[in-house]
Amino acid sequence: xxxxxxxxxxxxxxxxxxxxxxxxxxxxxxxxxxxxxxxxxxxxxxxxxxxxxxxxxxxxxxxxxxxxxxxxxxxxxxxxxxxxxxxxxxxxxxxxxxxxxxxxxxxxxxxxxxxxxxxxxxxxxxxxxxxxxxxxxxxxxxxxxxxxxxxxxxxxxxxxxxxxxxxxxxxxxxxxxxxxxxxxxxxxxxxxxxxxxxxxxxxxxxxxxxxxxxxxxxxxxxxxxxxxxxxxxxxxxxxxxxxxxx
Length: 246
Description:
Helices cover 29% and strands 19% of the residues. By secondary structure, the protein is α/β, with parallel strands linked by helices. The relative contact order is 0.18.
């Protein structure tokens, strides 16, 4: 595995982006909080789903190979949620799944400074990468918790969800492929891509680029074995989707 362009404060790029290849994008792949930012939460919460998409970094790293690169967030979603519009309240969440995040109660100036430091360079770098090496498919990779602390009675039976907004070209190909693996697949579950799709709206839908939004339930990828299984599964599905999109 080769890492290019060094380790940015806001993202990691693994592999070599290729025109006509696959780019995996993971907006919530890190739990890292810079030393000069105090969120005011218990340290163990940084290991929970409110801070990071558990398992996603391991899956993305294992997917990297010739023709597939990975662009991974390098700060926690609590520091900056890259999968939000810049004016969205939740971009610096003041609460998450019932937990207060006092360090995210920001003045207008502090909010602007954090956008400039994290959000802007992340999306500028991703836009430049996609422009320089237009992929055949963007794979937007997330994970979701089996159970919310704020709503423990809610059931989430789906092992994987496929999300999209208006462009469902890749989703319509991928859903039956995932179902053929014997999986319980959520079409627009546990969230709807018409509501939570900011990064793909910006970099894919707005420019007509094909993308596939994938949400894996975290207990599926909580071990090395699970990460490896899903990396191979998604690599194969991405290859099939790419061929059928052409």
